[in-house]
Amino acid sequence: SAIGQQVMAGTTGNVVGGWNFAVAPHTVFLNQIRYTVTGSENPADIRNVKLFVNGLQVGPSLLSVAADGAALFKILGDSAKLNTGSNSIQVHADIAGSSGKSFRFQILDPNDITATDSFYGVSIHGQANPGTEVAITIGRVMIGRASDSPSGYVFPGTAGVTLAKFAIKN
Question: What is the per-residue pLDDT across 66-84, written as a single tens digit (0 to 9) for each?
């Protein structure tokens, strides 16, 4: 399948999945959503996984994707409110490694999403979705002279003098 997006190994806060949920005729409260992460990556390299609903984080962050690929978000209370109309759900994560590999966050079964209808108070389920494939590219490091690096001459016989300072960024 085609690669939908790319993220660089060693980067943080990447959007690694995004879905638009259409809700009608009543507002619903998302109770839980279970993603199955599949691909060639090492699941432990997908860390600090967060669920966002309409731009706000809901539920606790996951330290990493489980070894079996599960990423289960349980939301307590009504913090994950899906209004009538279109709603954005995103998964953000830090990518610690697995350069040259790929993965996708998938909703395999409608029962992987549970929500409560605000009007009737009944449980409802979502729809399966294959997600988008994410390629992990090789990280890079940039090294440059720091802005506070000394410049000028060093006199012969001088000891303990800083010759240069460098800034390292990925």
Answer: 999 999 999 987 889 999 9
Q: Give the span between the Cα atoms of 158 and 156, in whole angstroms.
A: 6
Q: How many angstroms separate the CA atoms of 36 and 39, rounded?
A: 10
Residue among 149, 137, 45 at smallest CA distance from 99 = 137
Chain position carrying tokens 């350069």: 99
138, 141, 142, 145: CA torsion to nearest 10: -170
Per-position b or e across 50-82, b if 16+ CB within 10 A of its CB: bbbbeeeebbeebebbeeebebebebeeeebbb
Cis bond upstream, residue 25 (ω within 30)? yes
Token reading at 142: 């940039």
| 147 Rama sector, left if φ>0, alpha if ψ -120 to 50, beta otherwise | alpha
DSSP conformational letter for 70 = E
Confirm if 47 and 96 have CB atoms less than 8 A apart.
yes
Q: Which is it for strands 11-23 and 142-145: parallel, antiparallel or unpaired?
A: unpaired
45 phi/psi in degrees, rounded to 5: -80, -10
pLDDT over 70 percentage in the chain = 95
The H or E element spanning position 37 is strand 28-39
